[in-house]
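Researcher:
Attend to C-alpha cell order:
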Amino acid sequence: MALTATIRKAELQISDMDRGYYATHNLTLAQHPSETDERLMVRLLAFALNAEDRLEFGRGLSTDDEPDLWEQDYTGDILRWIDLGHPDESRVRKACNRSRQVQVVTYAGHASDVWWQKQGKALERFGNLSVLDLPGAFVEQWSQQIQRAMRWSVLIQDTEVQLINDQMQLDVIPVWRKRAKE
C-alpha cells in the first residue's frame, strides 16, 4: 500500500517592512511521506520570506523539473525559482537559465557549509542567483512547531524575521551567502 501525503494548513500574516509587502496567505502544504518536518517548515518560511500574490508551491519532491516554490507571470515565464537544500550545480544552472531570479535556501548547519565550500565557486558566476542560509539551531526549533493547522504572524524588518503565534515567538536572521546582482 502506498503512503499518502499529510496535509497541513497554515495561515501566514506577513508584514515584510523590508519589501513593503503586507498580506495574509492561507496555504495548504502536502507533506510527502519522505519529507522531514524540518524541510516542510523551511518551505513555509521560504514562502513567507518571498511572499507575492503569484508565489506557489511546486508539486513536491517527486518532481525533478519544478522547484520547491515558484512565481510565474501570466504567460507562464518563471519569474522566481526557489529550491531548498543542497542542489547540484547542474540543477542550479538549469534554474538560472529558466528563471529571472533563483534562490537556494540551505538549512542543514555544517552540511550547508560543506555544500557551499564545494559548490560556491561554481555558483558565483550566476548573476541571478541568491543563496540564503538558515541556522540549524533555529530550523530545529522551528520544525518542532509543526501542526496540522498553524497560524503565524511573520514580521520582517532589517533582515530580522520574527515568527509569532499564540504560544511563542521565534527570531532568526538569515545569512546571505550570495546575493543576486540587481
